[in-house]
């Protein structure tokens, strides 16, 4: 990976490598775009295979946050951070050291909770910086709100592709039963959908079977199920040259980030099969909306109204893609770029 070429190609404004001793810490903070406001993006902690893998993750996720915020109509930019560590080695000193790196950016980057961080970890980070959200866990934390947004986005996709607003009897395969996936299953069950679920945790799948009568599926079999909707709610990169030929679902609408293995290849592959794809950074924006509202002074009604806009935004994206004969991923980027360019224009006029 040529570092500078990659960062330039993806349009990042700034990438910071945070290295420290006592405690030892290696982290990357990627700031993609601040045209709409300060970069906002959660922090994840993973034992990456190498630093290149960590950088790639931070770059892709931060760019996705830019598009996510723009499509959600939230006045923040896109950023993301990764801490390279084993979750078993988490310490208070590690998170306080990381918080000091965030504080030095003086509000240019605002972070929160992602993979392998708990609300307590976020509160530890907040001891060193005020530029962190998710400390108070409003509305039960971001997961239920994210899941509600995914549910609304799934409804929009079903309405557009299958020409129905009724989810009763709809067959939905949910991949990944973390906090978001489990909440999504609850919403779907309440609206009469038939669930097929898979997860690496047998305990989670058994719980969903008990609660909602879900059919349990082996992880490798989830793609080839004869269902209406496939909902990826685990890690990214699962829509690729190996899995797409297996998919029988007409709609893909799930919470996972970076679902397309290679956007330029796998977006068109889905379109060629007649599969309607709800771009991940649009449909899973509920968590961002929730923590943004926490930052500005929480109003639950306002937060849920903004989440409800995901439904209308996706219908607009689907219609744009259909009219221009482009992928839904490209249509969503067009919409985001339109909003970002307007913000840049307004800023430039203000300077003049």
Features:
single chain, 12 strands, six-stranded parallel β-sheet, six-stranded mixed β-sheet
Descriptive notes:
48% of the residues lie in helices and 15% in strands. It has 352 residues and is α/β, with parallel strands linked by helices. Strands 1, 2, 3, 4, 5 and 6 form a six-stranded mixed β-sheet that branches. Strands 9-8-7-10-11-12 form a six-stranded parallel β-sheet, sandwiched between helices. A hairpin with a 4-residue loop joins strand 1 (14-20) and strand 2 (25-33). The chain is globular, with a radius of gyration of 20 Å. The two termini are 39 Å apart. The mean pLDDT is 92.
- Oligomeric nature of the chains: single chain
Shape: globular
Strand content: 5-15%
The overall pLDDT average reads 92
* Total strands: 12
Global structural class: alpha/beta
Termini, distance in Å?
39 Å
Largest sheet: 6 strands, mixed
> In DSSP terms, counting alpha (H) and pi (I) runs of 4 or more, how many helices?
12
- Estimated radius of gyration: 20 Å
- String of helices and strands: HEEEEHEHEHHEHEHEEEHEHHHH
Give unreliable regions as ranges.
none
Helix-residue proportion = 40-55%
């Amino acid at each position: 990976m040529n570092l500078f070429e990659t960062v330039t190609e993806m349009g990042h404004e700034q990438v910071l490598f945070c290295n420290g001793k006592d405690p030892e810490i290696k982290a990357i903070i990627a700031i993609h775009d601040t045209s709409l406001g300060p970069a906002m993006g959660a922090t994840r902690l993973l034992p990456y295979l190498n630093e290149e893998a960590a950088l790639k993750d931070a770059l892709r996720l931060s760019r996705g946050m830019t598009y996510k915020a723009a499509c959600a109509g939230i006045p923040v930019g896109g950023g993301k951070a990764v801490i390279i560590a084993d979750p078993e080695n988490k310490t208070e000193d590690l998170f306080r050291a990381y918080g000091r790196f965030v504080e030095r950016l003086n509000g240019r980057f605002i972070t929160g909770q992602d993979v392998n961080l708990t609300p307590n970890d976020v509160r530890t980070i907040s001891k060193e910086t005020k530029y962190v959200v998710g400390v108070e866990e409003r509305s039960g934390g971001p997961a239920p709100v994210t899941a509600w947004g995914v549910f609304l986005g799934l409804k929009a996709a079903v309405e557009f592709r299958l020409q129905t607003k009724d989810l009763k009897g709809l067959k939905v395969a949910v991949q990944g039963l973390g906090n978001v996936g489990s909440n999504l299953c609850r919403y779907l069950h309440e609206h009469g959908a038939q669930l097929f679920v898979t997860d690496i945790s047998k305990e989670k799948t058994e719980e969903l079977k008990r609660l909602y009568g879900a059919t349990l599926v082996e992880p490798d079999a989830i793609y080839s199920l004869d269902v209406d909707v496939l909902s990826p709610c685990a890690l990214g990169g699962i829509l690729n040259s190996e899995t797409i030929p297996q998919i029988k679902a007409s709609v893909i609408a799930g919470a996972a980030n970076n679902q397309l293995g290679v956007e330029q290849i796998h977006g068109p592959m889905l379109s060629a099969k007649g599969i309607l794809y709800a771009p991940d950074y649009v449909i899973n924006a509920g968590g961002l909306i929730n923590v943004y509202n926490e930052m500005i002074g929480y109003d639950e009604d306002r937060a849920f109204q903004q989440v409800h806009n995901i439904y209308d935004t996706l219908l607009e994206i689907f219609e744009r893609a259909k009219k221009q004969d482009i992928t839904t991923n490209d249509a969503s980027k067009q919409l985001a770029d339109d909003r970002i360019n307007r913000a840049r224009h307004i800023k430039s006029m203000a300077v003049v």
